[in-house]
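Researcher: Structure prediction, please.
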Amino acid sequence: MKRLSVLISVVFFAPCFSYAFAPGDLNCDGAINVFDIDPFVLALTDPVGYAAAYPACDVLLADLNADGAVNVFDIDPFVAALTGGEPEPIHRVELAGNPLSSYPYFEFVRALNVDEPVGAAVDPNRYPDLVGQTVDLYVVAAKSAGEWSADPALDDVTPDGQETVTISGSTIQENIFVAAGANELNAQAGTGLGVGYDVVLDVNRNGVLDGGDYIDGYGSEAGLYVVHNTVQPGPLAVTEITYSGGTWLGQNTYYPTNIASLGKLPLVVVSHGNGHDYTWYDHIGHHLASYGCIVMSHTNNTGPGSETASGTTLTNTEYIIANQASIGGGALNGHIDSHRITFIGHSRGGEGVVRAYTKLRSGAWSSPHFSADDVILVSSMAPVTHIEPASASTPLDVNYHMFIAGAD
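Model: Predicted structure follows.
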C-alpha cells in the first residue's frame, strides 16, 4: 500500500511525467529486484546518463520518498522497496502543549497564547521505539497532508532553529521540551484567531518529513495554533445598523465596513434575556464583526419564557437571511453564509437558543433558508433551565459552549 501511495503522489505532484512502472523499478522490467540497484545508483548520480541508458524509463522512478527530487533521501525507501519491507509510516501524534506541575504532568492542547512558551512532550510508554533515540525537534508552518507530500522539507521557524533532543527514561516528565519561547512565533492571523504550526520529531535527522518521523499536525487542522490577544479588536472597521421587520423583528446588526470585498461571512445571532434589550450588545457585535462576522442582535419575546424566546430567535434568523437584499441598502446581500450560523443567548435567551436548535433538529420548525446542519455553534451565557422536559432544550449533537457566570 505504501508503494502504491508513493506512486499516486508522484503522479499527482509531477503531472508532466507519465509512466506505468512502480517507483523503484529503475530498469522498467515490471519487478523491483537486484537488477534495479545499478540503475538506481545511476539515476541518483547521473540522471542524464540514466535517461540515455533507459530511454523507456523516467528518472523519477528513483524518487521513492515522493518529494519531487532524486537524492540521498531516496536511498532508504529504495532499500525498503527492494527488500520487500514496507517503509515506515509517518506517525501522527500529539506533541504540543503545556507542562503541568502535577499529574498528568503535561496537557496536549491545540491553542496556545503567543506570550506563553510552546511545550512538546513524548510519553516513552506510548512510543517505546523512540526511547534512546536522538532526534531533531522542529516547529514549522502548518501544512496539509497533500502539501507535505509535495514539499516534505522541514523549515524550522523559531529564532534558534530546530532543537536536538534525546528521548530517555520511562516517564513523560523526563521528556518535556521547550519547542518555542514566549512571543517567538508569529500570531498575527488577520481576521483569524491564530497562526497554525506543526511540530515534528525528525527521527532520522535528514531535514525531511518521511517514514518513521512523528508529527503533530499533517491534516486539515494544524498541530497547534499560536493565538494573539483576542481581547483586542480585530483589524476590520465596523458598521452598525438598526431596523425592524415588524413585531418581534427589531434587529441591531454589525458587519465589516468593507463587506463588499469580503465574500460570504458567518452569521452570529444574539438573543437577549428577560428585561434586557437587543441594543445592549455592542461589545459582542463590534468585536466579532471586527474579525469578519455578521452579528445580528434581535428583539426577543422572553416575557412568557424560553420557549417563546426560541421562536423569536428562529424568526429573526429567517428574516435577516430572507431580506438581506434590502437590509442596510443591500450591503449584506450575498455576504451571509447561511451554512455557518452561531446562536448566542443570555439567560432566557440562553436556554432559548438551545431550544431553537432542538426545534430545527427535530423538524418542529423549518426554514427554506437554513437547517440544523447550518448551525455550527450554540453558546449560552448564564442560561435558565425552565423548559420541561429537559430533553426539549438539550444541545444534542451541535457544538455547545456555556458561560456559567457568577452573576447575571
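Model: Residues 238-403 form a domain with the Rossmann fold fold (CATH 3.40.50.1820).
Researcher: Thanks, that helps.
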